[in-house]
Prior knowledge:
Number of helices: 4
Shape: globular
Amino acid sequence: MNKKDLPEYVVVTKTGQRPSILKTPAHNVPFPLTKEDVQDMRTLEAKYEAQEHCAGLAAPQIGIAKKIIVFAAPDEEALHRHHPELTQTMGKTIWFNASYQGIEEAGMYEEYEGCFSVEDLLGPVMRYNQISYDAYDKDGIHYEGTAAGYLARIIQHEIDHINGRLFIDMIPLERCMTRTDYRAMRSKLFRPAKHRK
């Protein structure tokens, strides 16, 4: 699929108006998949592959009101450097009808999140450090397990999408910042210390 043929992101407008597909729970996908379902999955996967620095995407973000998500938490040095909470990795994964439950005793932690459906804003979101998940693959095979750290955060973010919830629903808007301000803040935090004589 050519990049130019891929759908645009469905986004929250600058005035805060939210398209209904971003605030309404998506539909469960029955098995076996129809040809349309397979095409929707491939379109979502192609959009994910075409996007740089993409941890995950959910079908509603590209106008498909179905519970399909794609994500990855690869074992890469740059990712470990920016996300020290990356304690568990997972290759590219496509799930249908996924859900999660927070594991309360593992605690929660706050980290900045952005979203392709919320242009130019990031904000500090409190999420479970560990979750249990339940999902299906394209063949209808059921998966369940636990995820921790950054992987758990990605899964929570994407599953929230298919349930009509965005990260900006979880924090006051005044706690958000632009991508430019966020990069400036991160560069100060990760600036190497000057050599001392």
